């Protein structure tokens, strides 16, 4: 409040007239509000509030309308599973980190506080996103002025791409805040150098790096910027670099040490770099799709590992994640060296993707997803305008003081680090604030030129904008031509996971109407019909998968199952062999091949194939289980025990460590074999071996473990009951018999044995009833007839009928 206003308001409030005095107070309050509203803080709060309002509307609309809101898939599912492990107390996990860990621990903390609540996680991320919009405003206000700051804050607040990613369990929205904080702190350090400011910059760099490691590429660029800033003052540059390194190491070192001690592998932050590098640099790469060329877009870590082992001649041997990563780095580099012209074309393609106004989707189609939030109709895709304006704005920044150069340096460095791999919307998200701010700068610059009527500059600006707009808007590579077929397929998968089979079938049909080949659409339709015991329609769908898409190892494998169940083991064997030929890293297909051979009584061939399976896939428990059974048949009991002990003691598949979601999807869809049952089956077989050895007490322990793992396995309950009976634990035996008979009411022998136990307890009437039931089920069961006659004679002798 200036001096004149202060005197005026003081005069009014001290007058004797109460009305004038009240008016003075009102005017004074109004003046304070207006000054506050025009303050930096008020603008920041207004932008934050507006951004949060838009985000919450989006959140509740999507939550109410999108069927898969509560069913994360692919990367969000991986993060969800990892966070649940952390929240449950498994803080250190096992194996080296495949992905950078910070986001998983951030999400795990939310789960630990609020429970595994997707709503809590997404609302918190939206709140952080709203705060980030204010931080963008504050940064721009500090270094570029109020009007550029306001426009930048508003564009961020209404950016649907930012809002979309904040609503996903993805790390990218956090990196937006980390990027702004890092650059702001670096510019503060450039303005007034101090070890404290350099150190804090290092902390932000470290935090960003343990969220996405490609930020480490920015460290040498920071040093170059220092040298430009202070020229001959090398001491300040070196001190600054050292302080930044210390700050970054403080956060990165614990991750590295954990990988070495817990993961038993020398991995700096995460081991996925080599695989992603090869995905983006191979003869079949398109620069945008996260697909391993040998396995397609649905690859798992086990696929990549098998490929590395096979090419390195290490099938059946352990291979560290760092070795797998190094293998794929070498493959990618070899491609660059051997086919330089093709690689350069691929880089140009990725460069176009990075600056193109079209948002390239990753886990799900962003444009398809907009239909689930009506507010997106007022949130237009702004990147078509931001991209050309930001390039002009970045060029203008080179005319500013040298400390501003860190902004274009960051954009260029980050862009190059993305181009080294592959490009999509979420990967360019962290640099978006430093495209929005230069775009706002360029916008106001042209406004100033127009107001000043500087026609030459306006013309030059317009020509530059039109040319760049054309380059960044034209779809040179057809990336915007993708139909929504895969989106409907993904929606079908959500319904399949939820058991809503009719809706899943509808979505798959819609997808197939849009494209003749939608990989796995016919396959999943077949899975649904299989679960409904409609084997004929299931077979038709699997055949259609092969007819339309030509290659589908899963379809061949499923046909193998159907043919074996239908009594055609020869065709089952052929289909399993086809599946292996199309996908060599497919242990389930080997398993079906073995089962078909066993059905054909080709025991020697089945045994050799089982040994081959265990050699190729030593961690595949089903292979060891069937090898154990084959060894029992050959009388090699001790060798069989060793295999079955491995199976029963095998830990559950660690989805997080192995980046393998296939078993999760299998369980959710009721698809394929169930690996969690193998430990129970191994316990059962070990129990039978102990029975043959006469060690009933030890057998009892195995059968008990089998029933705990397989509560629906009747034979395990019946053998447990027999073991209890042998140990004279008759009440426990009766309880186990009752469970076994409930599960298998047509088992005549179970009724007979239960009758024997009842007789030992003196319950002769009940025993007679069970013997009669056994004979009803199997009239040829002589022992039951003999015991029934004996029991009836006892009953008659005691006067009971």
**Beta-strand fraction estimate:** under 5%
How many H/I helical runs? 41
Helix proportion of residues, in percent? over 70%
Indicate the low-confidence ranges by residue numbers. 657-672
N-to-C CA distance: 110 Å
Strands, count: 0
The pLDDT mean sits at 88
- Using the CA coordinates, give the radius of gyration: 34 Å
Largest sheet: none
Molecular shape: elongated
Give the structural class: mainly alpha
SSE topology sketch:
Blueprint: H1 3-13, H2 18-37, H3 40-65, H4 74-87, H5 102-114, H6 118-144, H7 146-157, H8 160-166, H9 172-191, H10 195-209, H11 218-230, H12 234-261, H13 273-280, H14 301-312, H15 321-338, H16 340-355, H17 366-369, H18 383-397, H19 406-419, H20 425-428, H21 433-451, H22 455-473, H23 485-497, H24 501-514, H25 521-531, H26 535-549, H27 553-565, H28 569-582, H29 587-599, H30 603-616, H31 621-633, H32 637-648, H33 655-658, H34 662-669, H35 678-692, H36 696-709, H37 714-726, H38 730-743, H39 748-760, H40 764-777, H41 782-797
Helix pairs in contact: 1-2, 3-6, 3-7, 4-5, 6-7, 6-9, 7-21, 9-10, 10-12, 11-12, 11-19, 13-15, 14-15, 15-16, 18-21, 18-22, 23-24, 24-25, 25-26, 26-27, 27-28, 27-29, 28-29, 29-30, 30-31, 31-32, 31-35, 32-35, 35-36, 36-37, 37-38, 37-39, 38-39, 39-40, 40-41
């Amino acid at each position: 409040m200036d001096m004149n206003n202060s005197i005026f308001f003081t005069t009014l409030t001290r007058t004797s007239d109460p009305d004038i005095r009240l008016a003075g107070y009102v005017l004074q309050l109004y003046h304070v509000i207006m000054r506050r509203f025009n303050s930096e803080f008020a603008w920041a709060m207004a932008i934050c509030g507006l951004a949060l309002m838009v985000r919450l509307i989006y959140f509740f609309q999507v939550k109410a309308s999108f069927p898969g809101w509560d069913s994360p898939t692919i990367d969000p599912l991986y993060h969800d599973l990892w966070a649940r492990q952390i929240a449950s107390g498994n803080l250190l996990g096992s194996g080296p980190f495949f992905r950078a860990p910070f986001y998983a621990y951030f999400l795990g903390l939310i789960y630990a506080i609020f429970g595994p609540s997707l709503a809590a996680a997404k609302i918190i991320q939206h709140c952080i996103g709203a705060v980030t919009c204010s931080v963008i405003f504050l940064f721009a206000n500090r270094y570029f002025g109020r009007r550029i700051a306001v426009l930048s804050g508003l564009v961020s607040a209404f950016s649907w791409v930012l809002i979309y990613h904040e609503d996903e369990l993805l790390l990218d929205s956090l990196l937006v805040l980390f990027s702004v904080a890092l650059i702001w702190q670096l510019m503060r350090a450039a303005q007034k150098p101090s070890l404290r400011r350099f150190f804090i910059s290092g902390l932000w760099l470290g935090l960003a790096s343990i969220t996405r490691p490609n930020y480490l590429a920015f460290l040498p660029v920071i040093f170059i910027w220092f040298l430009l800033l202070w020229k001959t003052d090398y001491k300040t540059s070196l001190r600054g670099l050292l302080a930044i390194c210390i700050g970054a190491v403080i956060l990165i070192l614990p991750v590295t040490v954990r990988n070495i001690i817990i993961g038993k592998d020398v991995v700096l932050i995460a081991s996925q770099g080599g695989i992603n590098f090869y995905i983006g640099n191979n003869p079949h790469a398109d620069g945008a799709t996260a697909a391993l060329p040998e396995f397609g877009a649905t690859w798992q870590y086990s696929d990549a590992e098998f490929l590395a082992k096979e090419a390195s001649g290490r099938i059946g041997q352990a291979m560290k994640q760092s070795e797998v990563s190094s293998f794929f780095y070498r493959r990618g580099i070899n491609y660059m060296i051997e086919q330089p012209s093709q690689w350069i074309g691929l880089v140009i393609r990725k460069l176009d993707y990075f600056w193109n106004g079209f948002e390239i989707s990753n886990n799900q189609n962003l444009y398809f997803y907009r239909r689930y939030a009506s507010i997106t109709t007022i949130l237009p895709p702004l990147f078509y305008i931001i991209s050309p304006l930001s390039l002009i704005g970045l060029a203008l920044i080179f005319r500013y003081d040298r400390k501003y150069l860190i902004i274009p340096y960051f954009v260029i460095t980050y862009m190059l680090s993305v181009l080294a791999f592959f490009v999509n919307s979420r990967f360019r998200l962290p640099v978006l604030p430093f495209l929005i701010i230069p775009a706002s700068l360029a916008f106001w610059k042209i406004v100033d030129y127009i107001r000043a009527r500087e026609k030459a500059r306006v013309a030059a600006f317009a020509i530059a904008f039109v040319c760049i707009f054309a380059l960044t808007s034209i779809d040179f590579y057809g990336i915007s031509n993708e139909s929504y077929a895969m989106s409907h397929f993904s929606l079908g998968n959500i319904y399949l996971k939820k058991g809503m089979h009719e809706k899943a079938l509808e979505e798959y049909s819609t997808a197939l109407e849009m494209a003749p080949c939608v990989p796995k659409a016919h396959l999943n339709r077949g899975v649904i019909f299989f679960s409904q015991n409609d084997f004929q329609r299931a077979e038709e769908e699997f055949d259609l998968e092969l007819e339309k898409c030509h290659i589908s190892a899963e379809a061949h494998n499923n046909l193998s199952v159907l043919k074996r169940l239908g009594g055609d083991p020869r065709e089952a064997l052929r289909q399993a062999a086809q599946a292996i030929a199309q996908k060599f890293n497919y242990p389930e297909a080997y398993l079906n091949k073995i089962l078909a051979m066993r059905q054909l009584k080709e025991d020697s061939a089945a045994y050799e194939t089982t040994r081959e399976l265990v050699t190729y896939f030593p961690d595949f428990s089903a292979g060891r289980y069937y090898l154990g059974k084959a060894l029992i048949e050959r009388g090699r009991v001790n060798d069989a025990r060793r295999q079955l002990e491995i199976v029963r003691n095998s830990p559950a598949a660690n989805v997080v460590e192995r980046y393998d979601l296939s078993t999760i999807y299998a369980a959710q869809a009721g698809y394929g074999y169930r690996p969690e049952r193998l430990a129970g089956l191994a316990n059962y077989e070990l129990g039978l071996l102990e029975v043959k050895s006469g060690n009933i007490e030890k057998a009892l322990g195995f059968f008990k473990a089998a029933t705990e793992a397989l509560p629906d396995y009747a034979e395990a309950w019946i053998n447990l009951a027999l073991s209890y009976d042998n140990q004279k634990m008759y009440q426990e035996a009766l309880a186990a018999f009752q469970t076994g008979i409930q599960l298998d009411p047509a088992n005549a022998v179970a009724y007979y044995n239960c009758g024997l136990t009842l007789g030992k307890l003196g319950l002769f009437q009940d025993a007679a009833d069970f013997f009669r039931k056994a004979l009803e089920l199997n009239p040829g069961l002589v022992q039951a007839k003999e015991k029934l006659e004996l029991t009836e004679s006892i009953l008659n002798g005691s006067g009971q009928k």
